[in-house]
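Tokens as discussed.
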């Protein structure tokens, strides 16, 4: 799913960069919105496979900043399914990071308490 979203967003960025833009430059808010949608969102989807927390935060902030930029442009922050579907991997990997961290903390506690118990028996 993430690979499909990354490919779609990269194709959109190429279309935006090399397509007809009617000779006008984007405003600052449009440029920031485009940055979050076309650069940091695919980057977050790539990073998420190595570092779950960092990628999840980057994805969630990118989606939030994209909709905030739409709001500042005067548009309503509507749901765009092809972009907002990227929030699903962000949430799922955040949950994965949370539970994997919790399990590793529980295992450390079990290991330490087992060692203390074994040392007391000897």
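Sequence:
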């Amino acid at each position: 799913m993430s690979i499909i979203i990354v490919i779609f967003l990269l194709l959109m960025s190429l279309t935006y960069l090399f397509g007809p833009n009617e000779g006008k430059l984007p405003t600052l808010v449009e440029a920031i919105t485009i940055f979050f949608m076309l650069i940091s969102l695919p980057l977050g989807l790539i990073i998420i496979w190595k570092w779950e927390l960092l990628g999840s935060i980057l994805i969630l902030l990118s989606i939030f900043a994209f909709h905030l930029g739409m709001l500042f442009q005067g548009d309503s922050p509507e749901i765009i399914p092809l972009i907002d579907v990227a929030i699903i991997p962000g949430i799922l990997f955040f949950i994965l990071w949370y539970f994997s961290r919790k399990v590793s903390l529980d295992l450390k506690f079990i290991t330490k308490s087992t060692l203390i118990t074994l040392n007391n028996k000897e």
